[in-house]
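Exercise 7. Given the encoded structure of a 259-residue chain, write a plausible sequence.
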């Protein structure tokens, strides 16, 4: 008689929860809630530092920024701080907000530099290379003067604008001032004349009268960034009392013509 084959014991499979995904989701929500509560309770600002300011005091910047000691570190929005500072303090050019756990905040700013003064209605508007109007003055105060352009409805904190016929001159002026600042020549600028459509004239050091075309193929900035190397050339440096007319008109070379 054949030996009966043993039957393997049958084990019941353990029943898993019907909604494992739901449990995971609830766990994630609880963890997130715990993190949010911890942030709200523990990360309170107790120290605020300001960097890069010289024109405005630390406290003035903190007050205008709208941040306070005791405020939650993670509820402070950099965009809001930047908007507050740039709209109320015209010399503030850029703003960066940095958090330092667990309770410190740094507001780093860069300030605009006056690059030129534009006349309008008997007063002067001081502006930076971006075309931002920084303040109104009764005199240019030693800054480079701009002619050939009439500002349209100027106001502190706004950007230089002009009528339709002179709109391109505003762009040319901003390109010129930016390129000169990048080349380290902004502080040597005496005056700018935008009255001629086919060329811009500006004077450096009271010695170099530069004519440059605003329609150069490579752009004005390309040539203006290279201008310092021409001004420092041996043939120019050897004659410090000699004045020159400098022509950058055809997009192929820079011509120095002794006056």
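Solution.
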């Amino acid at each position: 008689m054949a030996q009966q084959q043993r039957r393997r014991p049958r084990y019941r499979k353990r029943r898993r929860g019907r909604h494992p995904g739901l449990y995971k989701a609830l766990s994630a929500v609880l963890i997130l809630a715990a993190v949010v509560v911890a942030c709200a309770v523990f990360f309170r600002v107790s120290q605020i530092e300001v960097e890069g300011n010289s024109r405005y005091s630390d406290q003035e910047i903190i007050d205008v920024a709208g941040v306070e000691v005791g405020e939650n570190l993670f509820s402070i929005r950099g965009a809001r701080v930047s908007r507050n500072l740039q709209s109320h303090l015209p010399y503030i050019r850029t703003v960066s907000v940095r958090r330092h756990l667990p309770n410190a905040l740094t507001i780093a700013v860069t300030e605009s530099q006056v690059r030129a003064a534009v006349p309008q209605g008997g007063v002067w508007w001081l502006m930076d290379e971006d075309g931002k109007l920084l303040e109104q003055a009764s005199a240019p105060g030693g800054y480079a003067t701009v002619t050939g352009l009439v500002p349209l409805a100027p106001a502190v904190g706004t950007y230089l604008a002009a009528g339709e016929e002179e709109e391109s001159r505003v762009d040319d002026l901003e390109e010129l001032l930016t390129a000169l600042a990048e080349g380290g020549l902004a502080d040597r600028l005496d005056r700018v004349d935008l009255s001629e459509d086919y060329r811009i004239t500006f004077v450096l050091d009271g010695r170099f009268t530069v004519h440059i075309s605003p329609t150069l193929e490579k752009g004005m900035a390309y040539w203006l960034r290279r201008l310092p190397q021409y001004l420092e050339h041996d043939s120019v440096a050897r004659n410090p009392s000699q004045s020159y007319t400098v022509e950058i008109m055809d997009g192929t070379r820079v011509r120095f013509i002794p006056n």
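Remark. The helical segments are 20-42, 58-65, 78-88, 167-182, 220-224, 227-231, 234-237. Students should compare their own answers with the one above.
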